[in-house]
Design a protein that fits this description.
four-stranded antiparallel beta sheet, alpha+beta, 4 helices, single chain
Amino acid sequence: MENLRKLQECNKRNITFKQAFYKLGMTDDDKTMKELNEKEEFSALVNWALNKLPSFHSINLRQRVNDEIYQTPIHKCEKGMRVGKPMSKTRCQGAITYDWPEEMKYETLDVKAITNSIIRADAINLTKMQEESFIFEQQNLHKSNWCKQKETAGM
C-alpha cells in the first residue's frame, strides 16, 4: 500500500519518482525475474526504470494491493520521469502482475520484455476471471435448480 501511495504522490507532482523510491534497490542479481517475490519484483522494476529505462520510453509498473492489481505508467523524458495516475487494472483472486519467461533476469530486461510480460499476465488474469465467473454462474444455477425442485416437491 505504501508503494501505491508513493506512486500517487509522484503523479500529483509532490515528489519525483527518484525521491520516492531512492531506498528501493535490487535484492539478488542471480535470481530470475520469475523467482522474485512481488516485493523484490517491484523493487527490481523500479530500480530498472530509474537506471536503465531509455529516454522517451514508457513502461507500466504494476503492484498488487490485496486482490487488486494497480498499474501506473512511467515515462522517461529527456531529463526526468513522469509518473501517471495509478489505476485499478484487475480485481481477481490469484491475479498476477507479470508473467516472466523462465530465463529473464534483471540484466536482460528491456521495454519489450516488460510489455510482453504484462500482456501474458493480462491473458492469464482474463482466463482466471472467466473461470471465476463460470464457477459463480454454475453455483447459482445449481442453487436455482435445487430451489425449483424443492418448490415442485411441495416443501
